[in-house]
Amino acid sequence: MSKPIAVVDPFPRTMDEIFSESDLARLHDIASIVWARDDAMPENEFALALQEAEVVITGRWGRNEALTDASQLRAIIDVTGAFPLDLDYEQCAARSIRVLSVAPAFGRQVAEMGLGLALAAARGITVGDRRFREGTEEYLHAGNTDTFMLYGQPVGMIGYGGLAMALQPLLTPFGVRIRAYDPWLGDGYLRHCGVEPAGLEEVLETSRVIFVMAAPSRENVAMLSRERLSKIQPGAVLVLLSRAHVVDFDAMTDLAAAGRFKVATDVFPTEPLAADHPIRDVDDAVLSAHLAGSVREGLWEIGEMVCDDLEAIVRGLPPLRLQNAEPELARRYASNRPPPLDDPDH
Amino acid sequence: MSKPIAVVDPFPRTMDEIFSESDLARLHDIASIVWARDDAMPENEFALALQEAEVVITGRWGRNEALTDASQLRAIIDVTGAFPLDLDYEQCAARSIRVLSVAPAFGRQVAEMGLGLALAAARGITVGDRRFREGTEEYLHAGNTDTFMLYGQPVGMIGYGGLAMALQPLLTPFGVRIRAYDPWLGDGYLRHCGVEPAGLEEVLETSRVIFVMAAPSRENVAMLSRERLSKIQPGAVLVLLSRAHVVDFDAMTDLAAAGRFKVATDVFPTEPLAADHPIRDVDDAVLSAHLAGSVREGLWEIGEMVCDDLEAIVRGLPPLRLQNAEPELARRYASNRPPPLDDPDH
Amino acid sequence: MSKPIAVVDPFPRTMDEIFSESDLARLHDIASIVWARDDAMPENEFALALQEAEVVITGRWGRNEALTDASQLRAIIDVTGAFPLDLDYEQCAARSIRVLSVAPAFGRQVAEMGLGLALAAARGITVGDRRFREGTEEYLHAGNTDTFMLYGQPVGMIGYGGLAMALQPLLTPFGVRIRAYDPWLGDGYLRHCGVEPAGLEEVLETSRVIFVMAAPSRENVAMLSRERLSKIQPGAVLVLLSRAHVVDFDAMTDLAAAGRFKVATDVFPTEPLAADHPIRDVDDAVLSAHLAGSVREGLWEIGEMVCDDLEAIVRGLPPLRLQNAEPELARRYASNRPPPLDDPDH
Amino acid sequence: MSKPIAVVDPFPRTMDEIFSESDLARLHDIASIVWARDDAMPENEFALALQEAEVVITGRWGRNEALTDASQLRAIIDVTGAFPLDLDYEQCAARSIRVLSVAPAFGRQVAEMGLGLALAAARGITVGDRRFREGTEEYLHAGNTDTFMLYGQPVGMIGYGGLAMALQPLLTPFGVRIRAYDPWLGDGYLRHCGVEPAGLEEVLETSRVIFVMAAPSRENVAMLSRERLSKIQPGAVLVLLSRAHVVDFDAMTDLAAAGRFKVATDVFPTEPLAADHPIRDVDDAVLSAHLAGSVREGLWEIGEMVCDDLEAIVRGLPPLRLQNAEPELARRYASNRPPPLDDPDH
Questions:
Q1: Suppose A325 and one of A49, A99, C144, C224 were both cysteines; which one would form an S-S bond, judging by CB atoms 3.0 to 4.6 Å apart?
Q2: How far apart are CA D224 and CA D201, in angstroms?
């Protein structure tokens, strides 16, 4: 029996970036692989291959016209971390073609970075280290005038998706109480997950550490407005992990510069950030150049998950490791900028 | 019935520093309190008070001659974080006078900082933040050339005391495997605690992240010699939490400067550190000015534990929150520099 | 704006059985509810109501012909614990009608019972209690000749679905090592869940306690054959939780009667079991009359989950608490006896 | 250098019962072992050996007169599970002779049994199994008329010592809230351990499952009087694990027989219990013949802990696995019947 055909066209990612050596071997074991090169597959070649393919593993879509002829197709796996913007989700649903995202592969590395940034801000690690370079460090109590411990603090989560679920167990041993705001999730579900459902204002007002992990959508542009940011407790820590899109970045910079609260951010309105952007001079801020989701070994989790689910699909079983595009949300995904963490131009 | 007498002379700590308002009220509730001021109690006054006292809560000892007349004395509580150097432990043991240290009050805040420093080093948080200030930050993969995730890494602990036990639950959700070296503890005990007993060399050679938490003693001066430090894996992270005493600091600085491994340290051979010390220029190092054990709210755990155990002693029950001086180790404590974290001159 | 319509026809379950008072109020709050009675809804009335309904909550299906006219239908929720056998899954998939099962509501209560049965067998609780009634109890060591502790034992799971995932955290504090056999799941997924993938024989041969939790299917009739059961370790404990269907019950009875291993079972080939069935006389066996999934308060989790997901569907969001029928498995569900635990005739 | 001498006289326990083969070898490795036989060591021989011994490992004491001449003695290890009644604790304290108990070796096996008994009572496992033998079993809902799930229940602990600390992690995954009553422990300590301090009445009135784990003392004879037992919630479960001494057993039997609450007990006022004791006929009760602390492999934890701490003592380090006799409590131990779990005549 011949193996099922899988087209692997990860551009703008590269093969090495997402597949470890052993997973690459496994990939070829599971299916008959087409392309599997770092440069983008030419469109006509792609369209041709699609006619026989059972699975497409891709870094960009843009080929709805080819969908109709893809009669064997059972799954489209997007390796960027987002769902394709321009996909014909209705057709996929009607034909039971799975649309899958590798977003879960970023959960652990981004969550780990989120905790690291929170501790760096709360305990003054980055600012303390800079003082040492300047020769102005202060020891013991003198260096601890505005620090606090994470233990037992009220914590807020804005957006409770895969990233939040990866972060939650890292926070558990600190005995924190977590309030979560997510308009796409019901209260019962949030309670079942061990967090308290809360309104956005409540999260901002009651938390000592706030993690912003909401995927960007048309509705949430600058959702964290100047007015809302003003509700944050004095001296609290705001950790921005998903996208600058969801926050009024200028307001956030102003308030951080004024010492109202501390900011730790991994994302910026433009990347690279303008050389004269005032946040570069905010002493208390912790600045990270979109580093949370790009650790080398972490990216290999993409390949591991892709292989696990490719194997499941080939065996006629449901994929369980990647994220399924929910039909209810597909239109929302599609009509907006893609969800966070790792769109290629970013 | 009159309340038992407790002398409270916390100098060089202050009352406010260690007692929250509510614990201060509780203190006065439990016992009849003598002194309780920030300045040091005059020796003659102290000697007199000791004759009636059941408990002494103190920041420095140095009064063995007064011990004989302290006929009611049942416990000496040292609030520095160390055990008194010059105490007559034999007399205390023979008379069943408890000698107690507040060291456990530092466990959580130092452990939290230890994790923060490890993540800062492994994920490049401090160096990344400094790049931003210089305008040379690199985004995404380009900024992640030598970072790694803590998840699943082999971790080493040098010294497995109260601090290690506070750190261990914070590491658990990362799924790490922990090897511990502690010459004062048996293999069976370490296994019972959920870590693998290992030799010092094995810990250095096999770990991706190493936490140094050994209390200083006469035997362990520069125990982490140049030769031993050379066994550390390329690119590993060494987190120094207890005392510079246990490491050849010059060798550590050389090796870190040469890029052999990454160092994150909260302690230094002299504090303040010399302005021209070369570790100030090691780009990869994470430098923290003995900040791990002095968070304001964290210090109030001292007062909470002191009140809890004072109450137990007054009720004729064993104290359970502070650390007991073990008779077997008392001589070792006494003949050496005090254990880590918070001796007053430090 | 009028509320969406939901038909609630839980027969053979009753309204009270699955909805607590507060969830019943919530149900009426979320949607305009049709029927909601304990007796079965007449077919013609049902067919009529279906034309307007957005959601159907039902205890039996059997109405495919009505599906075509159900133009508003977005979800079918089966409250028995199984997926409907005779549903036209292809049509549902093509029209993006969710098919949902309340199976997850049974996870906790069945898992708890599974642990209770395992401890009863391993520690001799039921047999010890019976001895007391006969006046033949033996104390201390004499009563512990063939008991063992669960701590640190190798544990096997046959079937790793929702039930296994509910059981796993209950086993974690015992420090057990879990091997799982499940032909519908990939090795990578199982490892990701914290268990070791293993073949059926390996599970049987290496485990001291074996939990059978496999859903019945055409392929797994008597999968635990006499030959396979013979591979179980002497003195091990076999806990049968899903269905008698998956085991050669006569062989299991013989082996248990011969003292080869201990059996604890909640399910039987016929219920009630024949009065003269030999397992009734097996001294070591723990016998439970299908009690694992019918605790009164536990059944209210059905109503809670139904309300949570009804609310999500009405708001245009994906349901997250109930189990989705996976398109890949729908045919397998449909062509077989329903999955375990709670089909109505059982 | 000659090895230190340890006298090992475990009677009424036997060598095999407490030492696994490998720990027996280890024992001989650590020290020069005297006696190490199952029969009781003759007193004169014992007195002679004591003069040279550094450690005594014993199943009965009764030799205070010999203590004065035991000039090398550093530790007395009692292997019964209790502390010796008649020991001269003052002399031991003054001479820094450790008095150690193997009680912690029983924690896990008794805790496991405690959970098993609680589940058996709450879920009706023993009564359900007996019905099967009589041919009167009732299936599904009919068999679940008075059962309840442990998940989320308020749980009470009477006595919060080593046994409670072993039980607590087993209860954690059930999401229970624990109230603990222990007059020997402070509120701060209990809170630090993750339980809520509470009065005895509050524990009885608010808990759905109550674990009695208090060590017997002169003060707590029949502490659970008829009046107090009457405060227990209807249908709650009372698990008696430590000693019948602490409860009015007749009152408990009456109330259980009247169906006021369910009892699961591992201990009885006399053992064997009188053949006509009415508790034998209480249908709902779970009766266990002092089986909780005598599992064969479990008893080897005694030998493991003894070896671990013997090794520590020989190396001049504090023993960390066995329980130290606290000077404050020694008189209380000594003036009463020994603490629970495993005195030899029991």
A1: A99
A2: 10
